[in-house]
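Lab meeting notes turned into a lecture example. A postdoc, R.K., suggested we walk through two folding results consecutively so the class can see how the record format repeats. The first protein's sequence and structure tokens come next.
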Amino acid sequence: MDQADALEKRKHCLFVIGEVHETIAGNDLEIKPFYFIRIYQPRPRFEYLATVYAKSPEGFGSQDAQHWLQSAFCDGKMHRHQGSITRRYRGVVEDSREITGEPGDLSVVDAPSRLEPLKDLLGLPHTLLDHTKTPDPIEKCFFGYAKLSKTRQLVLGHIESTWTGRHPDAAFEIEVTHDAANRYFPKRLKCYQMDQEQSTSRSLIDWTKHGDLLLPRRGEMEGPIWRMRKQVDQRFYMKFHWLIGDQVPKQWTECGHPNYGHFVLDHFGRTYDRPNPNARPNFAGGVFWADPWTTPEDLFIEPDATTKTNR
């Protein structure tokens, strides 16, 4: 996609406020809030990635603390850092570890997610918050496994295209609604596995203009995954904030900062856990906790779809 290529040639920052809604048969809805941050500069090469969970996932320390997965590539070196602010017997510490080395020598286990909205919103939900670079679904699916089978005109000038194919051994069909108001970029995708009566994944995309770039403003993705032999219905709701070119402060791409994500959260008015430097050891006020999570009012493209599938 030419927009993705054009974006990679420019200094930019992406800040995502998101929620994952999960439902397992017989259980209540569980909401998992998260942030995703990317700061990128092509020359000299700099890239910062962070996935921030508003509450630590199970097995990662205090459930009340934010959990950070971060990486920063600067001056030819990769720095990775993960952890949370925790309270221990002798005071408040940052329960974390840092790994430094050549990019190819570091395991993806400790890496933050790599979210690329211009590509990932056309993929499958279960790969959205992946540690590795997602293969381009446009080239791999639409120009690889699938073929255009038909098109039809919709109201307001929108166009619907239907693609059919087989991968790896299951036949599938993809319906794409192209937005006439936004250069016919995809605004809705539905993927069907031919041996099932219902769709296997759905996506909604809301676009916005940044100069000559057309970028996602909000995105919704829905699809099932399997966990412990049980089907989990996942729905991702995301709001994308973009800073392009000179909108990104110079300080954000300079080497040596312990947490570039704090710059971004401060800029967009979101709080984060941090130690109180004036607290006494083992003192209850030893942590400035982040404010309770609040869902942005305009997070949902279709507000009534938060309790049902996107149709």
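The second example is placed directly after the first for contrast:
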Amino acid sequence: MTKTRAARDLLAYWYRLSAGRQAPRRDEIEPRDIKRHLPEMFILELERPGVFTFRLAGTAICESYGFELRGEDFSTLWQHDGRTGVMDLLARVVGNAEPVLLEVASESFRERMVRFELLLLPLAAPNGRLTRVLGCFAPLEEPFWLGTDPIVRQWTETIEVLDAEDGDSVPLTDRVELDVESDDLFADRSDTPAPPAIAFREVRPYLRLVKTDTR
């Protein structure tokens, strides 16, 4: 089950809004109801088969990884074999209406380590189709450097599929490595030298949403 307050509160909120359905609709999400955790939250949208993009992301996410995620293809945060696993997992979230919880170990540019809890929840479009994912990415500890020393390498340690009825979890895997050798996602974003590698860049805290979803 969840270990962070952000994941626990968001999961409880999702269950309440679902009210026996597969998932709540995007227009039922009220930011003021979960404002404490907005910095650690994001929404993905299925734009076309196999492609999920960030519709919005908390500022903590962008600060932790050094760039704005809105509009980015979620799969580009992984490289090579890692992308297939991530996209299969997202397909399971929206295809089976299954909440998924992951623990992720991350390494910064200066080779510091931090662990995160990543929650992925199915979310329906106004027409009822499951084409979106509501998520949060909360640190399991908060080192002083988080937000100033960007995460450049990351791997998944555990994946659990949560029972949509009672929140029970079922281990999906013990450890899945998501690592890369090189990445150019930081190119032309600033005058600061780019970190040499990145695998999975995601989420941490402060209060501001990059942009609200108006559809």
